[in-house]
Amino acid sequence: MEQHSIARRRFLQCTASGIAMSVAAGNASAIETRHATMADVDIETEADVLIVGGGTAGTIAAVQAGRAGAKTLLVERGSLLGGTATTGGVAFPGLFDAWGEQVIAGIGWELVKKSVELDGGVLPDFNTVPEHHWQNQVHINPYVYTLLAEEACVAAGVEMAYYEFPHSIEASDTGWLVECVGPGTRRRVRCRQIIDCTGGASVVGILGLPRLRDDETQPGSLLFKLGGARQVGREQLDQLYVHGADSSTSVTLTKANMDGRRSLLERLRAEGEQARLLHLQPETAHRESYRIEGETMITVDDYRAGRLYDDAICYAFYPVDLHTRDGVRPEPLDEGVVPTIPLRALIPRGSRNLMVAGRCVSSDRLANSGLRVQAPCMAMGQAAGAAASLAAQRRTTPLEVPLDDIRAVLREHGAIVPKPL
After folding, report:
1. What string of pLDDT tens digits covers the 421 residues of the chain?
2. DSSP 3-state of 76
3. Half-sphere exposure of 385 (CA within 13 A, CB side)
4. By the 8 A CB rule, do 86 and 111 touch?
5. I need a surface site. Which of 122, 220, 280, 356 has the fewest CB within 10 A?
């Protein structure tokens, strides 16, 4: 009996030892597999133009750069393109017209028009001057728009990188060395030009270049739908203000989204069973954060006067539209006035091989309240894409590319370019 017990113990010990060795070997194999997997997602990318942010401006910048022949990489921290129009839910872009004629066209208008046509919608009559500016904004189906935007990027040869964002940027002999990270991914990008389309000039901030911001910023909006049937592409969603909304960091983005959702939940509880929530956007739409200090600044006086800059690359048209805790009272522009946006307002002061496009354009706060809307942001994106692609191809920087050449590329791709004096 004792001999049997000893033999049994020895057998169990040997078995346990064998199992331990097998587990250890298995763990080692698993570790090796994990290491191999991690090595597989260390990516090296060469590009002429890197666009950071696939929102309103960044999508159009990417398509333009790709169509102009530049090897283009688009990095977007989220899962889809379109920004304010799609993730934010403000599927109501404008204004593409002023005083009875179209003043913004090009790639952004191409995608908007295709979205409306594919969805069976109706476009405004730009030959008519509406009583209220919003009557000529365009209702789009955001789901259709994001599909078409991605298709346009792919057709233009743009390489896409969703769920990634830069964490370090260094100047190199040929342009930039950018380290991007995403879930399980590390990407090293060597590029000649960068276009910052993050909305809040995040790339400019990483580089330590000057940015502008007022003590008070406009509230963001959380969009949703209560009750009834939702008419996607035909009407706008309900919205509530998110005061203090800040898109600068993951911490402030988290706070803005949670503040908005908490306010909506309070409203649902206050209104009772009649307030049935049918739709909720995943993120708060932001109106204002950082702006760049550019080679020139657009002031509200310039904006209201419709100043024609000698380096104007696109038009803008919208009322001065500052949202506050008390709401918004748009201040229409005088009849016949159509502001312009200069190339130098898209270039951070003293920088090389770097541009911005979108609401972080160099401008004072009141001018920015009109410049920040979707149509001029699309036009800025196309202008930046054209300038950056030419600069990359010619081994120079955007300010050194002849304006006539930039304007020629824009016209070739359907944009409306201000005529110089």
Report:
1. 434 443 444 434 434 444 444 444 444 444 444 444 444 569 999 999 999 999 999 999 999 999 999 999 999 999 999 999 999 999 999 999 999 999 999 999 999 999 999 999 999 999 999 999 999 999 999 999 999 999 999 999 999 999 999 999 999 999 999 999 999 999 999 999 999 999 999 999 999 999 999 989 999 999 999 988 889 999 999 999 999 999 999 999 999 999 999 999 999 999 987 789 999 999 999 999 999 999 999 999 999 999 999 999 999 999 999 999 989 999 999 999 999 999 999 999 999 999 999 999 999 999 999 999 999 999 999 999 999 999 999 999 999 999 999 999 999 999 999 987 7
2. strand
3. 41
4. no
5. 122
8-state DSSP, 290: -
Residue that is written with structure tokens 């003590």 in the block? 215
| Residue 93 CB neighbours (<10 A) | 26
Residue 328's DSSP bridge partners are 323
Task: Show the tokens assigned to 263.
Answer: 């306010």
Q: Residue 87 carries which DSSP code?
A: T
C-alpha distances in angstroms, 269 versus 130, 238, 240, 255, 266?
Answer: 39, 17, 15, 21, 5
Domains along the chain with CATH numbers: 42-214+287-412 (3.50.50.60), 220-280 (no CATH)
Cα distance between residue 176 and residue 198, in whole Å: 18
Secondary-structure breakdown of the chain: helix, strand, coil percentages, each rounded to the nearest 5: 40, 20, 40
Is 187:163 a contact under the CB 8 Å cutoff? no
Cα distances from 179 to residues 36, 45, 50, 165, in angstroms, run: 20, 10, 12, 8
Both structure tokens of 116: 């409306």
Burial class (CB within 10 angstroms; exposed 0-12, middle 13-18, buried 19+) of 17 = exposed
Per the CB < 8 A criterion, the answer to whether 167 and 179 are in contact is yes
Amino acid at 121: G
